[in-house]
Amino acid sequence: MNSKRPVNLDLRTIQLPVTAYTSIAHRISGVILFLGIAVLLYALDLSLTSEEGFEQVKACLTSPLAKLVIWGLLSALLYHLVAGIRHLIMDMGIGETLEGGKLGSKIVIAVAAVLIVLAGVWVW
């Protein structure tokens, strides 16, 4: 089969629209949340088993690495929430046009960035 279509296999030169980036980030944040729930459930289980376990989790959560992980999980949760609300709004028929999709993606990025910064201030 001889296809005359141009093929671009260099991923560095592919220009995706902003809607694609928000969609990809929504999926990645969902995976991060799925994996992060396991860590949080383990910490909850450890804290509920005994008083020593609670103190161990409490001491662990004061470390900068644990705060970074918590902030990362909160960031994923907030982005996933804002992007999910955008999907629900689009399911109602609002913002389904090309221009509306681009505007909605930009709003998601802006709102999520503000919420992520506020979560960082709250955690630290």
Automatic annotation (TrEMBL):
InterPro entries: Succ_DH_cyt_bsu_CS (IPR018495), Succ_DH_cytb556 (IPR014314), SuccDH_FuR_B_TM-su (IPR000701). It is a multi-pass membrane protein. Belongs to the cytochrome b560 family. Signal peptide: none annotated. The chain crosses the membrane at residues 21-44, 64-82, 103-123. The gene is sdhC. Its main location: membrane. Its cofactor is heme. The keyword Membrane applies. PROSITE patterns: SDH_CYT_1 (PS01000), SDH_CYT_2 (PS01001). Part of an enzyme complex containing four subunits: a flavoprotein, an iron-sulfur protein, plus two membrane-anchoring proteins, SdhC and SdhD. The complex can form homotrimers. Keywords: Heme, Iron, Membrane, Metal-binding, Transmembrane, Transmembrane helix. This is Succinate dehydrogenase cytochrome b556 subunit. CDD domains: SQR_TypeC_SdhC. It comes from Geopseudomonas aromaticivorans. The keyword S-adenosyl-L-methionine does not apply. It is found in: Membrane. It comes from the Bacteria.
